[in-house]
Amino acid sequence: MPTCGVVYVHSTPLAVCQHVEWAIARVLTAPVNLHWTVQPVDPSMRRAECSWTGRAGTGAELAAALRQWPMIRFEVTEEPSPGLDGERFMHVPGRGLFHATMGASGDIQLGEDRLRAIMASARAPEALAHALEKALGTAWDAELEPYRYAGDGAPVTLLTRVG
């Protein structure tokens, strides 16, 4: 059963744009030609986004392919599919890759076992708050938010995984 998602390349150096397209093309086994625009937050960088369709697990493969370039800011989402939760991946230079389960509304979901572990390990209210912020990827969200806002109204490329 196919699923779908979106790749947001929030910022990448111009010299890496073609490599990003090749990486996405390798995962989707289909040609990729993204519409690159200047990233208003940092005009020396470029941004692009594309919707994709493929089998479950494609989002993780796309995130793994893109994290080869540590200077890229990106997000990859994969919608829930029958029997599988959705996923969200965020990458920020210097912070690395964040991964979380995503609900149908796009919210990050924390399972019962993870919440229990966080509560058991927190020794003070501040520690609990910090652990929850970390589990929700708040630092990644905060760093990516200006780049997301700059992409409002940008063109989106539609891609389908072959095979």
- Rounded to an integer in angstroms, the radius of gyration calculated over CA atoms is 16 Å
CATH class: Alpha Beta
Please report the number of helical segments: 5
Give me the count of strands.
Answer: 8
Beta-strand percent range: 25-35%
The residue ranges in which pLDDT falls below 50 over 5 or more consecutive positions are none
Bin the helical content: 25-40%
Main pleated sheet:
8 strands, mixed
**SSE string, helices as H and strands as E:** EHEEHEEEEHHHE
Number of domains: 1
CATH overall fold name: Alpha-Beta Plaits
**How confident overall, as mean pLDDT?**
91
Structural class: alpha+beta
InterPro entries: DUF3145 (IPR021491)
Protein name: DUF3145 domain-containing protein
Pfam families: DUF3145
